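Structure tokens please, single chain.
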Amino acid sequence: MGLDTVVRAGTEQVAAEVEDGVVILNLRDDVYYGLDRVGRRVWALVQAPRTMREIRDTLLAEYEVDPDECERDLRDLLVDLAARGLVEVDRPAAA
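Here you go.
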């Protein structure tokens, strides 16, 4: 998943914010998933289609984190959410 990959929340889920995160019910497998405070922010950002670069840049502006660590952790989270069907991924067209 590259920085120009567009990510958005999947349509087969229901989410609710909780005190320190968000709980997501995947309607395909009836499994609940939980995200922490930073995960909740990522979840809020993917409610509209955004590139991974846009999400990363927002997180870098809002949190004190090493840019490489932020990008790596964000990529890992988005890949995991995509594998579980919670986000949809549109890879950019080849140049």
